[in-house]
């Protein structure tokens, strides 16, 4: 009996999933997801949080339950285990007579090294078949060799927009080969894997609750691309801070592969055909190109994506930053939103990253590691690539990517509604820029920032501007 094992990773969907496309279907199909124990432990010495935090574990488990339901409808099933991937896969291959293992081509060198070890472990005659998927473009469609990836995103975008056509997404399979006889199936309850993730719920002040799974992702995509939906005004609202629909909020489903980039691209093009293209619809695709760029950059960087392997010990400035306790409202509001919801707007991410690296002088890798833990939409290539970009290291290095927090606050939160939303004590102050420097308006109740370098204080808004 021919048996294929599908190793699901960041591709938890049936639609547009090349792993489930067969020229000649096997007689049995074993679908597996493996949660590595490395995801459940701290990323370095002196750090007290696991790499995968409660919001992402909860979203992951929702997505796995949904994936299993879709597989069952088509005659298959899903097995979820917590265990070291290479050893677990080798055991499954030997136990069930697997003759082919399929897995998505990874972005990170960490997963690539797992595939290399797996290839060495598999017995002769068992084929390991990495398949591309999830990006707009596959390697063969790039107008350059991957090792010749342009140094800047702008150069990459110009090349691919001029030379490439994005293929249509593949439809989901209607039926799949049956489950191997006597093979284990199902997944452990989340409460047994992580009680905190089982209990965790997002703060309702976030205004949006993410539910994992392909159907949920497609429903959100449909809402974004309906007549008058977010896509119609996205370029004007994308720098917002409050509300459910200033952003597409598709990133968690894209990160875990509940949606593919091509599915989003197709939905945007369909919207343009119905209502006419505009700057906002283009900007959604523009950001999908960013996602592709970070994927190919991560493939090229290898282990260098993460900087030196050993993380430095956290200092007091970093701890105040991650707790949202710096005393600077624009930073603290964002970090508390992240902790309470698992999500943060792109504008807020750039601001808090710049502040940590450029103002506090903290190693950017600590910030990237904290985001890996805290974000529900963590994506290895986009997260580490964006942090490197802000820090001015790696590809396209520049030292002028600096966000002055108070100037940003003037522009994006002039009334102080965002900071008052997440720091309720500030709501007692009059709406306006004074909420960003409450120590000026009410020094008896608010202290100046605790961890801002002295040189930075010269950038503070003059007192009269706070009134």
Automatic annotation (TrEMBL):
Entry keywords, A to Z: Chromophore, FAD, Flavoprotein
SUPFAM superfamilies the UniProt entry points to: Cryptochrome/photolyase FAD-binding domain (SSF48173), Cryptochrome/photolyase, N-terminal domain (SSF52425)
Photolyase/cryptochrome alpha/beta domain ranges (all copies): 2-136
Domain of life: Bacteria
Residues that coordinate or bind FAD: 234, 247-251, 287-295, 377-379
Cofactor binding note: Binds 1 5,10-methenyltetrahydrofolate (MTHF) per subunit.
Known cofactor(s): (6R)-5,10-methylene-5,6,7,8-tetrahydrofolate; FAD
Keyword Flavoprotein: yes
Cross-referenced InterPro entries: Cry_DASH (IPR014133), Crypto/Photolyase_FAD-like_sf (IPR036134), Crypto/Photolyase_N_sf (IPR036155), Cryptochr/Photolyase_FAD-bd (IPR005101), Cryptochrome/DNA_photolyase_1 (IPR002081), DNA_photolyase_N (IPR006050), Rossmann-like_a/b/a_fold (IPR014729)
Record's keyword annotation contains Translocase: no
Pfam assignment, any one: DNA_photolyase
Gene3D superfamilies in alphabetical order: 1.25.40.80, DNA Cyclobutane Dipyrimidine Photolyase, subunit A, domain 3, HUPs
Reported function: May have a photoreceptor function.
Similarity field: Belongs to the DNA photolyase class-1 family.
Official protein name in the record: Cryptochrome DASH
